[in-house]
């Protein structure tokens, strides 16, 4: 029999999950495993279109440095950052769906990060993150507004978000929450990917590739005084070969890959040229995954393609600041995932000269962390 379109809706969750009522009854036992989650997804989607007022989407601005943030979980973060009180589960799911992108990056780079040597962070990861934290948390310089208070400022920290899709179209107030976590640092977010400007042509028409803008970048400057955003509708390996961003500095640069699909059969070929270039920069690469299976598939692909030239910085596991809202794959009603469910990090292996103290001491240094 030829395949038929899914047309029969479940009376409980309202999601089409079978082609006929007879097939729905046959698979009802397996559908019950996801029925409650599918109903939650359906209700959350209708909530966004309900026309109600969304107080959870009002974000706080900068706060005094003495008011330290607490990055243990979502509740402590929202409380310490003085967000509007979110007392219900549905508004909490809606607000975390957007904030998971900047907060996931900030929770790893911050000096009060919940990820330490006791919590999944490896010694190589501490070395890489310490370099970035040195830049993100500079000491007080005594700068002022008069001539005597003039002080040199360090360059901004560049975060390269590769394969950017939905994260590049987030409201800029959402990304400014990352800058508020680091009040004495500046950021330059660089979104790179062929889909980084999808459905945004009416907002920012792509400029011509000429003159001082050879790659047609869309520049958004002076966002809150601490952030600048550049968007390149191009592959990273093309920009890297043209040396558009060189030199790279582990003290100022980091790469972020949100759900990159490194090991997915349909997209792994697009990352084959990019991975060696990422390893050559020696900068940390932070990756997330939709599910545990998706994350482990990406790790296995990196481990196979790197051929021992990569160090694991952060052990893979569930992200403390994952999206609390579940998402549904429109092509497969049984495929349920959530944004940034898992997080891990790696970096190109660094070879440093050291004094030879015998075979015993050399063997005690251990591996790269992949065998953990």
Commentary on this structure:
This is Mss51p. InterPro entries: Mss51-like_C, Mss51_Znf. Residues 3-48 form the Mitochondrial splicing suppressor 51 zinc-finger domain. It comes from Meristemomyces frigidus. The structure is a single chain. This protein has 372 residues and is of the alpha/beta class. The chain is built from ten helices and twelve strands. The strands form three sheets. The protein has an eight-stranded mixed β-sheet, sandwiched between helices. It has a two-stranded antiparallel ribbon with strand order 1-2. Helix 8 links the parallel strand 7 and strand 8. Helix 4 packs across helix 6.
Task: Give the helix/strand layout.
Elements lengths: L7 E2 L6 E3 L2 H6 L1 H21 L25 H7 L8 H21 L13 H14 L20 E6 L9 H10 L5 E6 L25 E6 L3 E6 L3 H6 L11 E5 L16 H8 L3 E5 L2 H15 L3 E9 L7 E4 L2 E7 L3 E7 L10 H5 L9
Parallel strand pairs: 3-4, 3-7, 4-6, 7-8
Antiparallel strand pairs: 1-2, 5-6, 8-12, 9-12, 10-11
Structure summary:
30% of the residues lie in helices and 18% in strands.
Structural features:
372 residues, alpha/beta, Rossmann fold, 2 domains, 8-stranded mixed beta sheet, two-stranded antiparallel ribbon, 10 helices, 12 strands
Enter the CATH topology name of the largest domain. Rossmann fold
In percent, how much strand structure appears in the residues?
Answer: 15-25%
What gross morphology would you assign? globular
Supply the number of helical segments. 10
Structural class: alpha/beta
Number of domains: 2
Give the helix level as a range of percent: 25-40%
Rounded mean pLDDT is 90
CATH level 1 name of the largest domain: Alpha Beta
CATH architecture of the largest domain: 3-Layer(aba) Sandwich
Which residue ranges are poorly predicted, with pLDDT under 50 across at least 5 consecutive positions? none
Distance between the termini: 48 Å
SSE series: EEHHHHHEHEEEHEHEHEEEEH
Quick one: how many beta strands? 12
Question: What's the main sheet like?
Answer: 8 strands, mixed
Radius of gyration: 23 Å
Strand order of the largest sheet: 5-6-4-3-7-8-12-9
């Amino acid at each position: 029999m030829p395949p038929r379109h899914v047309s029969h809706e479940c009376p409980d969750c309202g999601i089409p999950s079978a082609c006929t009522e007879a097939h729905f009854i046959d698979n009802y036992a397996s559908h019950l495993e996801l029925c409650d989650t599918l109903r939650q997804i359906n209700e959350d989607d209708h909530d966004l279109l309900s026309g109600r007022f969304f107080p959870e989407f009002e974000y706080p601005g900068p706060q005094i440095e003495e008011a330290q943030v607490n990055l243990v979980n979502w509740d402590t973060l929202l409380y310490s950052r003085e967000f509007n009180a979110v007392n219900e589960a549905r508004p909490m799911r809606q607000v975390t769906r957007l904030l998971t992108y900047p907060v996931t990056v900030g929770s790893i780079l911050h000096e009060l990060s919940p990820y330490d040597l006791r919590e999944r962070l490896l010694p190589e990861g501490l070395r890489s993150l310490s370099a970035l934290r040195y830049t993100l948390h500079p000491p007080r310089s005594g700068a002022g507004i008069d001539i005597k208070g003039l002080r040199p400022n360090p360059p901004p920290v560049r975060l390269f978000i590769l394969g950017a899709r939905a994260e590049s179209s987030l409201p800029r107030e959402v990304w400014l929450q990352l800058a508020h976590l680091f009040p004495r640092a500046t950021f330059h977010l660089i979104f790179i990917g062929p889909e980084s400007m999808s459905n945004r042509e009416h907002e920012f028409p792509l400029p011509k590739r000429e003159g001082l803008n050879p790659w047609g970048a869309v520049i958004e400057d002076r966002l809150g005084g601490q952030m600048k955003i550049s968007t390149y509708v191009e592959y990273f390996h093309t920009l890297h070969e043209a040396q558009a961003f060189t030199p790279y500095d582990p003290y100022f640069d980091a790469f972020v890959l949100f759900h990159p699909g490194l090991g997915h059969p349909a997209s792994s070929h697009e990352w084959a040229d990019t991975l060696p270039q990422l390893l050559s920069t020696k900068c940390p690469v932070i990756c997330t995954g939709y599910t545990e299976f998706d994350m482990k598939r990406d790790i296995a692909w990196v481990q196979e393609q790197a051929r021992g030239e990569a160090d694991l910085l952060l052990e893979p596991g569930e992200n403390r600041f994952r999206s609390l809202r579940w998402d549904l794959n429109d092509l497969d009603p049984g495929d349920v995932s959530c944004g940034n469910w898992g997080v891990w990090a790696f970096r190109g292996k660094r070879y440093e000269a050291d004094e030879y103290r015998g075979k015993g001491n050399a063997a005690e240094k251990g591996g790269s962390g992949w065998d953990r």
